[in-house]
């Protein structure tokens, strides 16, 4: 009996999940006959729809509804929860670890394949800023979004109960670094949420909260155009959000954000959204990379100069055949990634059947961005929208792109309920340390002599999230 042709999909994000899903449909007969096997290796058992992270952080959408369980969707695929560390395509071999290999202590395993799809996505691009690793938080994963929501509400609790003015000011100062989609949308949604939440604190007013957006260039949201970017700045500043253009974060050590313009901001919250970079696994392959560390690809979504290797999304530098500018590449955004997966799956199926491949071609149609509840900007098909119409378009577009009918229905239901009832203002920070309460209860009782002059009997594992 001949071995099935194994298609290895590295990554279970938007590109990885949708490519595998489309391959399930394209290769239905081959999968049924055992001629083909699809293996998906991903660190998480779910796909996160990142455009909805700001709304999840603000409480408009439940966190479990912005993720899609891979095993349910990819029921014809073999899903391995693990991480690919290196790829030797010349030998058609990937080196990876899984949850089981870590428990067994047997080290990494080798997985052979016939066709390779590289879609590991991207990670936050950080800089050697003092204190960044110790105190900042990113905004790419659902865990980070919910952790940030809990943290913001916790800071309001601290400010409400402290008698130290300096601690209060630092707790109510929130610094966001990066004026792209992630930074602006996260800031807009969380500022909205915190302003609403402040009405339930007897000693915190909306004007007590200080929000700062730091952007190194001279504009924010470049994808929506200069005019809409300027409108977004005016809208944010009208809400008392301090927008600092052509400014960089120099340091955030010791809970003080030092900006390149000399400003020093004592703060307990620094959110880093200053761009992304390709996943590290790309550097540990024998495949060609460009100067930015992305895979060199053809318009047919094959890796340049290599057979049986494919890529799309953030990891791939795909030439834009619709552009008149020579050498221009497709932007690594969701709009291209959604459409690339369709061509990618069709081309892999065509390759296995000996049929000709087709090129990926899509002209960029524009962008939409949310600035908080009922506020947004859009530049689509040459038309510029702002305010409520742009916000409505933002929701409609991303709802249409949310994978599976199940998730679409749940998100729509939550939006409907959110419009009928008040916002949730609950912080569930203890979820980040679920064993803390039990550890405290199970710990042996302390003797009175064990407690120093500055310790109380309740000292022990903390329930809430770290304040950093």
TrEMBL record:
Record-linked SUPFAM superfamilies: FAD/NAD(P)-binding domain (SSF51905)
Species this protein is from: Streptomyces solicathayae
A GO MF label: oxidoreductase activity
Region of interest called Disordered, as start-end residue ranges on this chain: 439-468
EC identifiers of the protein: 1.6.5.-
Name the record gives this protein: NAD(P)/FAD-dependent oxidoreductase
Entry keywords, A to Z: FAD, Flavoprotein, NAD, Oxidoreductase
Keyword NAD: yes
Enzyme class: oxidoreductase
Family label: Belongs to the NADH dehydrogenase family.
InterPro entries cross-referenced by the UniProt entry: FAD/NAD-bd_sf (IPR036188), FAD/NAD-binding_dom (IPR023753), NDH-2 (IPR045024)
Annotated TM spans: none
Lineage: superkingdom: Bacteria
Biased composition (Basic and acidic residues): 447-462
Occurrences of domain FAD/NAD(P)-binding (ranges): 6-339
């Amino acid at each position: 009996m001949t071995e099935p042709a194994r298609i290895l999909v590295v990554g279970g994000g938007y590109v990885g999940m949708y490519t595998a899903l489309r391959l399930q449909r394209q290769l239905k007969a081959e999968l049924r006959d055992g001629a083909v096997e699809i293996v998906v290796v991903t660190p998480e058992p779910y796909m996160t729809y990142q455009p909805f992270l700001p709304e999840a952080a603000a409480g408009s959408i439940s966190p479990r509804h912005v993720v899609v369980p891979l095993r349910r969707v990819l029921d014809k695929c073999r899903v391995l929860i693990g991480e690919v560390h290196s790829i030797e395509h010349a030998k058609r071999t990937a080196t990876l670890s899984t949850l089981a290999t870590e428990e067994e202590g047997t080290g990494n395993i080798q997985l052979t394949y016939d066709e390779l799809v590289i879609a590991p996505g991207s990670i936050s691009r950080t800089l050697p800023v003092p204190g960044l690793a110790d105190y900042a938080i990113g905004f790419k994963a659902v865990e980070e979004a919910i952790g940030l929501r809990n943290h913001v509400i916790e800071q309001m609790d601290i400010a409400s109960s402290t008698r130290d003015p300096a601690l209060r000011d630092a707790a109510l100062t929130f610094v966001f670094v990066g004026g792209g989609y992630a930074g602006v949308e996260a800031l807009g949604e969380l500022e909205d949420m915190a302003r609403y939440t402040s009405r339930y604190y007897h000693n915190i007013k909306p004007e007590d909260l200080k929000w700062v957006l730091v952007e190194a260039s001279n504009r924010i949201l470049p994808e929506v155009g200069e005019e809409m970017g300027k409108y977004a700045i005016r809208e944010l500043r009208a809400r008392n959000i301090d927008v600092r253009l052509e400014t960089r974060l120099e340091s955030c050590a010791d809970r003080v954000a030092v900006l390149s313009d000399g400003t020093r901001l004592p703060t307990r919250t620094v959110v880093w959204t200053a761009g992304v970079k390709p996943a590290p696994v790309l550097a540990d392959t024998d495949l060609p990379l460009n100067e930015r560390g992305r895979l060199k690809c053809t318009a047919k979504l094959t890796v340049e100069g290599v057979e049986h290797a494919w890529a799309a999304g953030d990891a791939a530098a795909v030439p834009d055949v619709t552009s008149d500018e020579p050498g221009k590449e497709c932007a690594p955004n969701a709009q291209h990634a959604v459409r690339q997966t369709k061509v990618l799956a069709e081309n892999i199926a065509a390759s296995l059947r000996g049929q000709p491949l087709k090129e990926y071609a899509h002209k960029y149609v524009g962008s939409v961005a949310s600035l908080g509840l009922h506020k947004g900007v859009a530049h689509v098909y040459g038309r510029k929208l702002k305010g409520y119409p742009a916000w409505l378009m933002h929701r409609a577009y991303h709802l249409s792109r949310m994978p599976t009918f199940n998730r679409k229905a749940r998100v729509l239901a939550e939006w409907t309920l959110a419009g009928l009832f008040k916002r949730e203002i609950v912080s569930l920070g203890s979820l980040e340390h679920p064993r803390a309460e039990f550890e405290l209860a199970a710990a042996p009782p302390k003797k009175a002599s064990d407690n120093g002059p500055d310790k109380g009997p309740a000292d022990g594992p903390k329930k809430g999230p770290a304040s950093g």
